[in-house]
Amino acid sequence: MVNEGAMVDLVLRNATLPDGSSGIDFAIDQKLIVDRGPNLKYLSSQEIDLERRLLIPGFVESHIHLDIALMNSWEKPGRQEPFRLMSDLNAALEKRRGTFTQSEIEQRASTALKMASRQGVTAMRAQCHVDPEVELRHLRALLNVKDQYQDLITLQIVAFPQQGLLKIPGTLDLFREAFKLGADIMGCAPNLDTGCSFREHINTAFELAMEMDVDLDVHADLSIPKHVELDDLEIVFTANRTLDNGYQGRITAGHVSALDSTLPEIATQVIHLMAEAQINVVSQPDLYRLGREDSHHVRRGLTRVKELLAAGVNVTYASNNVRDALRPMGNFDLLEEGLILAYGAHMDTEEQLNTLLDMSTYHAAKALKLKNYGLEVGCLADLVVLDAPSPAAAIISQSAKTYVFKFGNQVATTQILSDSYFEEN
Ligand SMILES: [Zn+2]
């Protein structure tokens, strides 16, 4: 218990909060928010006037392929070959990753974490290739950077079956090894398992997750067929298995793009089922990839974000791929991805824009089950100050991250020297 008048590690003054309240001070000590309110009387050698800028809890990057991120040229990050087919993208990745060494993966992942930290990311869930070809090389690399950068970003690692679970003998034992070594979450990608049906793949992933007593992170319904029936959907099978296995709240599903190919009455049934199974959804606003082969009326490949939110499903969004074989764009910047999703999912009212900022903070933290997350007394002081007066303004103006704090330590700052809203008002 810290009382007013006491010495604390850091005092932040004059913050505006996402709920619109302003003039709020925060006292931070021993990594935690120890008090908040107007005109706090704490002493500190470090005191920062936020000048009414928006204070939010740290961004949570809930789905990123960290082991392959930044594999493209730094100077020329665009695609080297013109886009032809979706299947070419994964083939290009498979070819390139054969050259990845553990130290090279560590170097790229380190750069990625530093870039993400500057963008205000304080926690991240990384997908990591585990299969008989690369064995545990990618995992060892990510475990090392997890340890090395724990004071910048809290990292969770998903063991991701890039070459399926049932296609190659010995894969399941390799996954058991991965969890012994330190993987946190079981991955699942039925589209990559050409050796079995999607039902067999999902069942196998569930069995392994339950055996290891870990949560399950599913790449679900990545394709966007023109029309889909209820039983064709991987997410429907996943939700039913979740209820059968008593795994409610322990499943996160990325993409869920084919849900948008269903007729509205089927979509309503699916969304109810997803809500009942308490499935977290990660929308990936990479609008340019799915639908790329359409010759006209090019589809977006997004899930039904607004309908899922309205049904009470916990929906977040993430970068997914950053400057790799699958997407040459990206900056680990959830304000940028949020703006792309605002366009793609038609979220443009002030309330919807505010919701977008909740999605990459509170909703993502819920999906990752982060403890002591938020702006309340007792929460970890993982905080971002945005050079904006409100969440909607932060997304529309793509505001600077004026300060980023991890465990109460300032880890990044970006000062805008040009005229700002705050000088004029
Ligand atoms: Zn992914």
How confident overall, as mean pLDDT?
Answer: 95
- In helices, the fraction of residues equals 25-40%
CATH top-level class of the largest domain: Alpha Beta
Low-confidence stretches: none
Strand element count: 16
Say what the CATH topology of the largest domain is.
TIM Barrel
The tally of domains stands at 2
Query: Major beta sheet, specifics?
Result: 8 strands, parallel
Secondary-structure element string? EEEEEEHHEHEHEHEHEHEHEHHEHEEH
Structural class: alpha/beta
Q: What compounds sit in this structure?
A: zinc ion
Overall geometric form:
globular
Portion in beta strands:
15-25%
Multimer state: single chain
CATH level-4 homologous superfamily of the largest domain: Metal-dependent hydrolases
Describe the protein in words:
Helices cover 32% and strands 20% of the residues. It is built from twelve helices and 16 strands. The model has no long low-confidence stretch (mean pLDDT 95). It has two domains: 101 residues, Roll (Urease, subunit C, domain 1); 310 residues, TIM Barrel. With 425 residues, the protein is α/β, with parallel strands linked by helices. It has an eight-stranded parallel beta sheet. A four-stranded mixed beta sheet has the order 3-2-1-4, with no helix packed on it. Strands 5-14-15-16 form a four-stranded antiparallel beta sheet, with no helix packed on it. The structure holds zinc ion. The site of zinc ion has 6 residues, from loops.
